[in-house]
Amino acid sequence: xxxxxxxxxxxxxAASGLRPSEYAEIRRRLGREPTRAEIxxxxxxxxxxxxxxxxxxxxxxxxxxxxxLLRGPGEHAGAVAVGDGWAAVFKxxxxxxxxxVAPFHGAATxxxxxxxDILAMGARPIALLDSLxxxxxxxxxxxxxxxxxxxxxxxYGNSIGVPTVGGELACAPCYRDNPLxxxxxxxxxxxxxxxxxxxSGPGNAVVYLGARTGRDGMHGAAFASAxxxxxxxxxxxxxxxxxxxxxxxxxxxxxxxxxxxVVALQDMGAAGLTCALAxxxxxxxxxxxxxxxxxPRREAGMTPEEVLLSESxxxxxxxxxAGREDDVLRIARRWGLAAAVxxxxxxxxxxxxxxxxxxxxxxxxxxxxxxPEYAPPAVPPAYLREARRADxxxxxxxxxxxxxxxxxxxxxxxxxxxxxRQYDHMVQTNTVVPPGADAAVLxxxxxxxxxxxxxxxxxGRYCYLDPYVGGMLAVLEAAQNLACVGARALAVTxxxxxxxxxxxxxxxTFQQAVDGIARACEALEVPVVxxxxxxxxxxxxxxxxxxxxxxxxxxxxxxxxxxxxxTREGDLIVLLGAGxxxxxxxxYLAELHGVVAGRLCEPDxxxxxxxxxxxxxxxxxxxxxxxxxCAEGGLAVAVAECCIAGGxxxxxxxxxxxxxxxEAAGRGGPAERLFGEGIGRFVVSLRPDAVPPLLALARRLSxxxxxxxxxxxxxxxxxxxxxxxxxxxxxxxxxLRSAWEAGGLRGRAAAGGARDDAVG
Amino acid sequence: xxxxxxxxxxxxxxxxxxxxxxxxxxxxAQYVWxxxxxLRGLDAVILPGGFSYGDYxxxxxxxxxxxxxxxxxxxVAQGGIVLGICNGFQVLLEAGLLPGAMQPNAGxxxxxxxxxxxxxxxxxxxxxxxxxxQVLRIPIAHAEGRYYAxxxxxxxxAAHRQIVFRYCDAQGAVTPDANPNGAMDAIAGLASPSGAVxxxxxxxERASEDVLGSADGRLIxxxxxxWIYSGRRLPAQSVEAx
Lengths: 760, 242
Known about the structure:
The complex is a heterodimer. Chain A is an alpha+beta fold.
């Protein structure tokens, strides 16, 4: 064997980002000093981004078992059975820091990366969703950032031919310098053909497939694992995406898998070749003998460390049966991709990396993948006591109509059509319910009449005020959205966006949010099949704790789905569910009063689960003409959205209650009844003759149900039973629509160049 | 009857088109790899949507030089019929099989949404089942769909009745608001003078089943199937754009 490189210099140790204690641990594991390449490999593999050092312990609390579960956490993506032998594979990931520095390429490569995670499971990617957070829309820099991110998602997704079918977008000052770009991808594969990332079979070939390796994206994983600074080198940590090559890689990989010659595969994403080699070998309990000279390169003169750590996009690593290498190489040539056998699997669990006659690394791959785990101190944040006190009585009065129009124009609620019409949301011809609905619905072409539904949800403001309840609410909101389209929840994947876990108050919010998600998922009996943690989301100030939940649902018959809009005159409107509604932490307080405060109610999980079941059953039995849940902006915004979506007005009358004037924001007052937020409430519409079976269904599940109005006309009128005088709200649907369409980030983001060269 | 669907490396509507013809229409279809040099034996050829070679330069520019697209010219000269959808339309323009060019959309953005089309001509292989003036609801999805032709060509387009579909509103009125990309004369679909070659920006394969929100696109494929089945032939022709 060639001699091993000499130990790394002290300066290289320092540059690796490893702590002194971690360096000592590496020496202990190796029984010697690490080489320069090894220290670089440890640096990326033990970064927070790759190793989940601060989150692994907390994530064990999430429920990971469930009906139909085929692959849980630990693989590239979770997989669940969706019927007729088909498996749905899905996952969500963040690309926050790259998008902050280079919005177009950061977002584009985020899309490319999550698509390859799904591909690595052997699945064909069939849908994308994204969850975005930005600073306030009145900041001119935000418009360019939004524009870059949206254009980046569009450029990659549209070209590679995977539809972007849904998502969400919200704004708050805490995301000003650290936006969130979370992308979820869904794929389909036959159950028996789900691929693995477990290398096996000594003598099998290690095959590189895809784009050539360059110097781009060096240390991306490390970059994602530190707070955002003003380091100009950060730009070089952002990779450049090439969706055309991404498309070739999808086709070539699926074709290679279909030959049966591929034993295992993994994409080369964060930490590049190093991560793929180490994780595949470690999972299989085998070793690999690799020669870096064989790696296809884009530029000359790259050092072994650069080849090992490059995060060039659109690359996969395959383990191919000995003797079948040509089957895969031939496919690569047909698709015009670089491919090469760069080494062999070995029985001895040692990862040996050579460069000509040098051995640059030789170690047990598990030393790289089993990073230390930290349980940092957790302390409730000091701000909580003050923030949870909300003196609503002292707020200035706002007329309900004015409040409704302002809420409809707020970024979280306003129309996102200007965003999603830039995304190809129809390619692959499966999109039954397009973006803009409670959840996206796709038909399953190969298993008719089945369908899948997918939604992404999260509310940072709720989690700021109460991360435990906020975590629960994110899960419940997702389940409600699925119920509205008639889908049964199958599985959850999440993206947990937080500031630095090394701050005890941040870490406490992380633990609380994970606990909340876990409790809600247990109550709904939905497993968490995978996820992603993004820490260090701070640039000056930390972001709100922002867990985002993606939930996948199933429809037995995709034709039996519902939409939110009122399209027919004379239907009755029913409010299902009776969870409390309060202004605490609401969009109303934030948008109209600039107040982020209040005490959130812990939801009754079992009652919420029953409410979800009642709506789903009502939709799938075909009882309803429409279904929509009350979310941001409460009941008033929900009914206004139903008017706008269907183009039909309504008259709604609420039970008489407090006698307070309609402008007041006090407890129990009109503002709370109109704009108060609370989980477990749905607005549904139906023919009068369908009301008795709906009420019977609600009684069976102990869900309160109350007829609150009738559809029809061209105005939305909301008042109180038997009250004299003007109703609280009486506005033309056209006015609601124009506020909703003109609001949000629209227009502000329409100008300006989208590419990063035009940004900053 | 056999319809060929050309597959470029970056095609992404090839499978959708195949599905529409095979599963929805119940007709035979086959994929044709872009390196094929002959199209003999095919009753019709479809260039599907997508980003044929990445299209970083100009949509369809590289695809226009591929062997399969070069083979279109002799194929059409011998009476073959060709439908280019979206990127396929862009390729037909780049290859000179149809006159004019595509520019980036007015507004500069990719747009994906349902639009309405008015049928201007129903004597082509792709519209023979439609009534003149019939309005179809079919989606678009493109960033470069603003059709342009120089004034001389524009006169010839009218003289040869080459405009087959125009963007319109739900009632069939051609208005500036109903034009999603600023295309000249609201052109959404353009044919060769004989009608043998049709370029179409909207995607009929995305609107061929009710569950997808519209089945109007199916009428275009049904027209094609009916034309082929009836054995109608167009006169042998020059394939020069003009």
